[in-house]
Specification:
- By secondary structure, the chain is an alpha/beta fold.
- It is built from 24 helices and 21 strands.
Length: 677
């Protein structure tokens, strides 16, 4: 038995939201404010009732819908009144023949053997009988939404009620029917589902007075109650407690040879009882495992031969240790009182941890969860543990199983979720492209999942120089103070190397829904004596060997160079305004047409190259040359550029106020387009 899907309506950003969960681990990724925390929050508030739903929890647009509905109530006859919906949560549960039906029977809507779903619906609504009362109480400001909001913030709980139903489902159409059960009770829901989690706001601190790990270890033992502790370890603990009890009792009450701490007190008490008193007072120690572990243990860690308190650890390790303790505590709670479905969430496990620790976490977390899943099943549970992890870490993503990945994004002000394995379907027959992209993300650029925009470049040269070029473009094209546009370096932009094959990534970019600037080379070519395309200058070119350009414009053949070279600014942007391609163009009308980045840079920055000649040669960026050789830019770029990566780093190293260089036009145009998006 497992949760197959969660549908949420009208909760914060989750206007009309659907999330399909994986059987074991669902790793949820996405930028800030894309709905990840909201999913966990609504489960906590509705299923666990840790806190109450508030007016601010209702989607802003839907608040206005509620307002308009309440305004009309006085004009609607009783027979036509309908409850006003606030928030709606649906949990789709899939079961099999191996599962126990004991707890799900009250929720089963039919006995169709093909139907293996139950759908729980939680509706937070204003019932019909309360609509007129609400309408009456807000009648003095019935046309003022701001006053209505203030009223609802204070009085929402008086009018809204949580109702739980089971919904009908047609397995043939795979859609809901109009059938609905009678009202159900939350106590029956909790037999099926329990949600436990580790929030991002967990208590982790290295302040001297904070002992959060010690507290967590104590909670762990309390939940276990000694039952699941290794027998030998437990026996050793019991033996130590007995000895401690004996020693403490002697210290408290004394013996034949020694007075105890309370001996004098007992003697004084006797005086009040007289010599005839038969009462003999004594204090005996009666330690318990719980008392010792909850009140008298402190977590330390070893360093050489010394013991250091937990607070001497860095926050990263404290966070990691804290998560493990929390997981163990949550699992102990589950094993003590399991439901049919045990949903465990871990929010942002990467807090304070360096990349290597993040890799370690995601590598080991599935193994740890499986151990507890197996333990749960050995105790007779028919269902195991479903885990939900949210993260902002590209390091965790890069080392995860991409089949576990669910991508969250905002689309027109609402949250949307997509399972990464659905990308495979979008690639269709291009499965080699899908495999390449999947492997590329694993090795390199998982940060794409957290970016707003991306710049695709061909290689190291452009990748190294792009940040400086972004800065130069911002300086030379100042932003109006009244504009909402942010400088390029202040935007969430990722830079990735795609070579001349950015077309392979197009479906990924569409999947992510991000803006993309492709910076590539025009790569002029013509046919040689063997009828094969070879590189040449733009003057001699008849075609291009650049696959990105050909794919972008959907052109082919050996006579396309002039078509590519003459494309307008607007033609280099996709119809949905999401992707723009940029390649070499003349700096001015009817001037030199470069063939590559190096060619374009040298033609624009000839004087800078001459001024920094010695340094560029010394750094092995350029081969030795005469100033006169720089007149043929294409030939100079081809013959005199020694190491492209060295050229890029040298340009950064040798630039100063007196010797600066300019950004080629094709790149600055592209960057300005991206800045405005």
């Amino acid at each position: 038995m497992r949760i197959n899907k969660i549908n949420i309506r009208n909760y914060r950003l989750l206007k009309d939201f659907s999330l399909e969960l994986k059987s074991e681990l669902s790793l949820i990724v996405g930028k800030n404010n894309c709905g990840k925390t909201s999913v966990l929050s609504v489960l906590e508030k509705v299923i666990n009732k840790r806190s109450s739903l508030t007016w601010e929890d209702i989607n802003l647009n839907h608040r206005k819908v509620i307002f308009e509905n309440i305004k009309k109530v006085s004009d609607i006859p009783d027979s036509e009144l309908e409850p006003t919906l606030g928030i709606n949560l649906q949990i789709w549960i899939q079961y099999s023949e191996e599962d126990s039906y004991q707890n799900i029977q009250p929720f089963m809507m039919d006995l169709n053997p093909d139907n293996n779903f139950i759908i729980l619906e939680f509706t937070y609504t204003i019932p019909i009988q309360k609509l007129r009362d609400l309408n009456y109480q807000v009648s003095d400001f019935i046309d003022d939404f701001s006053k209505f909001e203030l009223f609802m913030k204070k009085n929402m709980s008086k009018f809204f009620e949580m109702q739980v139903y089971s919904l009908g489902y047609n397995p043939s159409t795979q859609k809901l029917t109009e059938e609905k059960s009678n009202l159900l009770e939350m106590k029956d829901v909790h037999k099926i589902i329990k949600v436990r989690g580790i929030s991002a706001s967990r208590e982790v601190s290295n302040k001297e007075n904070n002992h959060s790990l010690s507290k967590t270890s104590n909670r762990f033992y309390k939940l276990n109650n000694g039952e699941d502790i290794d027998t030998n370890a437990n026996n050793l603990l019991q033996s130590a407690i007995l000895k401690a009890d004996e020693t403490l009792t002697k210290a408290y009450s004394g013996d034949d040879s020694n007075e105890g701490i309370f001996t004098q007190v007992f003697e004084r008490v006797k005086k009040f009882g007289g010599n005839d008193s038969e009462a003999e007072l004594a204090i005996h120690s009666s330690l318990s495992e719980k008392d010792i572990l909850s009140n008298n243990t402190t977590l330390y860690y070893k360093h050489d031969d010394s013991l250091l308190p937990e607070t001497y650890n860095g926050l990263g390790y404290l966070n990691l240790y804290g998560i493990i303790f929390e997981i163990e505590t949550v699992m102990a709670d589950i094993e003590k009182d399991p439901a049919d479905i045990n949903l465990v969430y871990i929010e942002e496990p990467e807090s304070h941890t360096h990349p290597q620790l993040q890799y370690i976490f995601i590598k080991n977390i599935k193994d740890l969860l499986k151990v507890h899943d197996d333990e749960l099943k050995t105790r007779g549970a028919t269902s195991g543990i479903q885990t939900l992890i949210t993260t902002h870490s590209s390091h965790i993503v890069s080392d995860c199983n991409f089949d576990d990945l669910i991508y969250f994004k905002r689309d027109n002000g609402t949250a949307v979720s997509k399972a990464f394995n659905s990308l495979k379907e979008e690639y269709g027959d291009e499965q080699l492209g899908y495999k390449f992209v999947k492997q590329y993300l694993t090795l390199n650029s998982s940060e794409l999942f957290f970016a707003d925009k991306v710049i695709c470049v061909e290689g190291d040269t452009e990748r190294l120089l792009i940040p400086t070029m972004m800065q130069k473009v911002d300086i030379s094209n100042p932003i109006n103070r009244t504009s909402n546009t942010m400088p390029l370096l202040s935007q969430n932009i990722s830079i990735i190397e795609t070579g001349a094959h950015s077309q392979v990534f197009r479906k990924l970019f569409n999947f992510l829904g991000i803006k993309v600037l492709i910076i590539t080379d025009i790569d002029p070519a013509n046919k040689n004596g063997n009828n094969r395309l070879t590189s040449c200058s733009a003057v001699e070119a008849t075609s291009t060997t650049n696959a990105s350009i050909k794919s972008f414009f959907d052109i082919s053949g050996d006579e396309v160079f002039s078509i590519v070279a003459q494309k307008s600014f607007e033609e280099k942007i996709t119809s949905d305004n999401r992707i723009r391609i940029a390649y070499q163009i003349p700096e001015d009308e009817n001037t030199y047409q470069p063939a590559s980045f190096e060619d374009a840079f040298i033609s624009l920055n000839k004087q800078f190259i001459i001024n920094q000649k010695d340094g560029l040669i010394k750094f092995e960026a350029l081969k030795n040359f005469d100033d006169s050789e720089i007149e043929d830019f294409y030939k100079f770029a081809r013959d005199k550029v020694n190491k492209k990566s060295a050229l890029a780093s040298s340009l950064l190293y040798f630039e100063d106020d007196g010797n600066t260089w300019k950004v080629p036009k094709y790149i600055s145009e592209g960057l300005l387009w991206l800045r405005r998006q």
